[in-house]
C-alpha cells in the first residue's frame, strides 16, 4: 500500500489546489490541529515555497491571512512527446507559461531529446532555476522507476529515460503517460476547479483517458487504467475503439476506401478532411464519433465523475465527429439521477506539454515537503 502523505505534503497540496487559503481553513480541511498547521506552514514560508497573499475580511473576528504557492520559487520544464506534436515548455509553479520550443515530431533517441532540452535551457532558462523536468509520453510508462516501457511513437522499449536525463542535467526528471499527465495537471493547475472527480480523455492518433477520483489519479492494479482505446466496440464486431475512432484509423480507412479522396495528396489531419468532406468521410466521422461517445458514456457510468473532458490538438478537431460524440454521450450517459455528467471539449495546443509541467510541479512539491520533514527529524 502507498505511504500516506506527510502533514507538510497534505497542507502543501491543499494550498496549491485552493490557490489561496488561510491557516484556519487548512485546519478544517486537513482535520489537523492548529499547532500542526502553523508549524508546517511556517516552515514552508521560511523556505519561500509559499507566501502570504494578503488579508481576507470575515464577518466576525480578525481578518485571515491568506497563503498561496510562491510561483517564482522555481520553474519547471514540461515535455510533450506524442503523435501530434513534440513540444517543450517552461512554466512557473502556478502554471504560467514562460517559454516554449517545438521539436521534431516522430522518433527521438534519448540523446536527441537531451540535446533539444539543452538547447532550450540555454536559450530560455539560462538565468532561471529549474526545479524539475516532466515528460508526458505517448506510451506505457513506469512513473516510479522513470522507465518508458513501450512507446511505438518513439520506438522506445524499457528505456530508463528519467535517470539518463537526471544524470545529464542534475535535475529531477519525472515521466508519465500523456493522458495521466494531463489529468494530474488539471488538479495542480486548476482546470477541474473544485471537482473531486473527473475523466480527461485524449483523442488523436491514439485514444486514452486519465481518471481522477477524490482528486487523486487512479492508475488501476497494473497502471493501465484509462486505456480505453483498447476497449472493444459494442456492435459485436470485436474491433477495438482505436482501430475505428482514432484520427489515424479514420484517415487510413478513407485513403483505402473513399473514391473521392485524392490519393496523391490525401488529407493529413481531420481538420484538412473537413474542408471538403465526401459523403463517405461524413459517414466515417459520424460512425467514429458515435463509438467514441458511447465509450465515454460507459466510462462516466462506471466512475460517475463530476465532469468529462475530451481533449485534442487543434488540427485533430472535427466538428462532424465531435457533434456526434456529444449526441451519443448525452444519449447513453447515466440517467438514474437528475444530475447528469457534462462533457466538455479542450483543444488548447500546449495542454500536453503544460500537463507535463503540471505533474512535474506536483512531484516536485512532494519532494520539497519531504525534504522539510527530513530536516525536522534531523533537528
From TrEMBL:
This is N-acetylglucosamine repressor. InterPro entries: ATPase_NBD (IPR043129), ROK (IPR000600), WH-like_DNA-bd_sf (IPR036388), WH_DNA-bd_sf (IPR036390). SUPFAM superfamilies: Actin-like ATPase domain, Winged helix' DNA-binding domain. It comes from Vibrio spartinae.
Amino acid at each position: 500500500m502507498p505511504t500516506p502523505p506527510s502533514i507538510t505534503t497534505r497542507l502543501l497540496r491543499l494550498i496549491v489546489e485552493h490557490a489561496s487559503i488561510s491557516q484556519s481553513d487548512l485546519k478544517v480541511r486537513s482535520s489537523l490541529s492548529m499547532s500542526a498547521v502553523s508549524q508546517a506552514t511556517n516552515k514552508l514560508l521560511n523556505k519561500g515555497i509559499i507566501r502570504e497573499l494578503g488579508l481576507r475580511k470575515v464577518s466576525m473576528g480578525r481578518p485571515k491571512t491568506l497563503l498561496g504557492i510562491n510561483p517564482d520559487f522555481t520553474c519547471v520544464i514540461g515535455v510533450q512527446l506524442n503523435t501530434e506534436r513534440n513540444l517543450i515548455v517552461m512554466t512557473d509553479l502556478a502554471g504560467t507559461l514562460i517559454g516554449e520550443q517545438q521539436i521534431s515530431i516522430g522518433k527521438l533517441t534519448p540523446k536527441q531529446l537531451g540535446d533539444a532540452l539543452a538547447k532550450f535551457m540555454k536559450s530560455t532558462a539560462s538565468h532561471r532555476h529549474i526545479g524539475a523536468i516532466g515528460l508526458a509520453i505517448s506510451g506505457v510508462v513506469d512513473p516510479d522507476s522513470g522507465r518508458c516501457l513501450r512507446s511505438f511513437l518513439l520506438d522506445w522499449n524499457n528505456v530508463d529515460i528519467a535517470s539518463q536525463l537526471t544524470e545529464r542535467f542534475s535535475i529531477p526528471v519525472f515521466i508519465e503517460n500523456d493522458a495521466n499527465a494531463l489529468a494530474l495537471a488539471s488538479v495542480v493547475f486548476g482546470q477541474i476547479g473544485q471537482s473531486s472527480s473527473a475523466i480527461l480523455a485524449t483523442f488523436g492518433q491514439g485514444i486514452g483517458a486519465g481518471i481522477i477520483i477524490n482528486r487523486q489519479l487512479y492508475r488501476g492494479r497494473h497502471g493501465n487504467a484509462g486505456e480505453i482505446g483498447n476497449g472493444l466496440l459494442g456492435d459485436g464486431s470485436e474491433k477495438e475503439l482505436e482501430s475505428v475512432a482514432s484520427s489515424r484509423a479514420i484517415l487510413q480507412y478513407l485513403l483505402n476506401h473513399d473514391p473521392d479522396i485524392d490519393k496523391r495528396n490525401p488529407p493529413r489531419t481531420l481538420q484538412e478532411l473537413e474542408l471538403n468532406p465526401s459523403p463517405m468521410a461524413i459517414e466515417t466521422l459520424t460512425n467514429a464519433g458515435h463509438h467514441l461517445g458511447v465509450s465515454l458514456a460507459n466510462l462516466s457510468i462506471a466512475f460517475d465523475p463530476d465532469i468529462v473532458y475530451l481533449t485534442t490538438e487543434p488540427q485533430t478537431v472535427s466538428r462532424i465527429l465531435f457533434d456526434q460524440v456529444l449526441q451519443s454521450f448525452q444519449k447513453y450517459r447515466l440517467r438514474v439521477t437528475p444530475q447528469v455528467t457534462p462533457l466538455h471539449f479542450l483543444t488548447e495546443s500546449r495542454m500536453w506539454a503544460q500537463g507535463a509541467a503540471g505533474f512535474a510541479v506536483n512531484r516536485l512539491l512532494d519532494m520539497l515537503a519531504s525534504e522539510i520533514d527530513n530536516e525536522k527529524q534531523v533537528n
